[in-house]
Amino acid sequence: MRNSFPASQEAAYPTLIQGGMGAGVSNWQLARAVALAGVAYQSHAPVLGVVSGTGIHNLMVNRLQDGDPGGHIQRAIEAFPLPALGEMILEKYHRNVKRPSGSRYRFLPKLSELLNEHARDRMELIALLVCGSFVEVWLAKEGHQAPIGINYLEKAQLPRLFELFGAMLAGVDYVLMGAGIPSQIPGVLDRLASWQPATYRLDVAEATQRHEISFDPATIMPAGPALKRPRFLAIIASHVLAKALATRASGFVDGFVIEGSMAGGHNAPPRGQYRLNALGEPIYGERDIADLEELRRLGRPFWLAGGYASPERLREAIEQGARGIQVGTMFAYSDESGIRADLKAELRDRAFRGDLVVIADPLASPSGFPFQVAQLDGTLSDAGIYDARPRMCSLGYLVQPYETPTGAVGVRCSAEPVSAYVRKGGRAEDAVGRRCICNALLATTGLGEHTRVGVEPPIVTSGRDYEFVRHLMTEEKRSYTAEEAIGYLLHGAATGGGPGAGAPPV
């Protein structure tokens, strides 16, 4: 099954894709602001606003418990096409006033319960996952016709089917996925669009048999009209993987985002011999540079990402055959992103002064992928903060499924207590330096959990190229909007004005 876009939009691939960053960083407010600002450029440079799909049901529930300022989450849940489930969620989690300072959020069912068909809270968890994705996409799309995408991590496999279905119920236009080999997604989209049961093969350590997770939409909702099958863009680092996905994925891959090692968040590990520099960062070489000629031969649109946040780099990408670029860090620093205000102000100020340090930490993420970490006091980049935090895994997005001696599937996380990790078959050396990325990223948005020793410390990820701040900020003007960022990129690229090129009113 191919896309069901209106004919007038069939060729309207975006020139600019806003990156799907961190849990709640690319929130619905940012994606909506990008989409609305991009409307002014639709005649020559369509723009795609993107929400992050990571931790999305936790974000919905935590916002409800914080009083849901503006009533946005409640409004979206009231539009959810499963009223009984929506009412259950509101009744259980919605507060009419802000949660008392220092009190904990209610614990949600663990994602590992999805592995047990008979788990007591499994259906509640599925409802939260479906509704959480619906809410974020619905709010991003509310009141306009511009396209909206959602970004996922392939490494976070357990909730995938349910999250995709929720996003599709809200009419999501694009699905983007990186941090792994997302070969199963196209076929899953095809099946869910037709209300058919879908399965997702799990990457299970020590497996002696195939393990998968299944979802039949009919178990929670009667089949309705065919859903729009969103376009699927794979976020990858090499032309080799692009060729493999183009020929061997479970369905049609609509395009590729080629992300270099300068991009924020998770990066693909270097190919070939694994070496570290003096700072302990992975060293990338010629083999890690995608061959654009090979990409052009595939005949699929592709976008370049990682260090492309300037009009010159946008023009360069298009001249090299790309459809456009994906930009993350520029939008993460913008007013509308979900990063906590104090952290965002420090990021912008230090980037403007030129003394922001970003290190590609090969150990930080339990996923095993290098993770770009901004070095900021009071965050998990600080060894003292890391050492003081009790090790725990309460959200479970980046867990590693493993096969138990009985043939069942358990989960372990290299950021959990070392004794527990080793008891489940993990190696103690693999737990060294691991950060609880899931909880820390929620804390970066101000929605972190409260533990027995205090509030979760944040971790802040950023790309390594932040020269754009000097074109969007001044000594007097210490912030900028998503609209201003789009104006800088697209107007400068269209006029050839480059740095300092003014943007017309949007």
Report a brief summary of the structure.
The chain is an alpha/beta fold.
Multimer state: single chain
- As a percent range, the share of helical residues equals 25-40%
What is the C-level CATH assignment?
A: Alpha Beta
Give the biggest sheet. 8 strands, parallel, barrel
Strand order of the largest sheet: 1-2-3-4-7-8-10-11
Rg on CA atoms, Å: 21 Å
Mind telling me which CATH architecture this is? Answer: Alpha-Beta Barrel
Strand content: 5-15%
Beta-strand segment tally = 17
- What structural class do the secondary elements suggest? alpha/beta
Quickly count the domains: 1
Averaged pLDDT:
88
User: Which fold name corresponds to the CATH topology?
Assistant: TIM Barrel
Secondary structure tally, helices: 18
Low-confidence stretches: 1-10, 497-506
State the end-to-end CA separation.
37 Å
Quick one: overall form? Answer: globular
What does it look like?
- This protein is α/β, with parallel strands linked by helices and 506 residues long.
- The chain has an eight-stranded parallel beta barrel, surrounded by five helices. A three-stranded antiparallel beta sheet has the order 9-13-12, with no helix packed on it.
- The radius of gyration is 21 Å and the shape is globular.
- It has a single domain (13-339, 468-495), classed as TIM Barrel (Alpha-Beta Barrel), CATH 3.20.20.
- The longest helix is centred in the N-terminal third of the chain and has 20 residues, at 122-141.
- The two termini are 37 Å apart.
- Mean pLDDT is 88; it is low at 1-10 and 497-506.
- It has 18 helices and 17 strands.
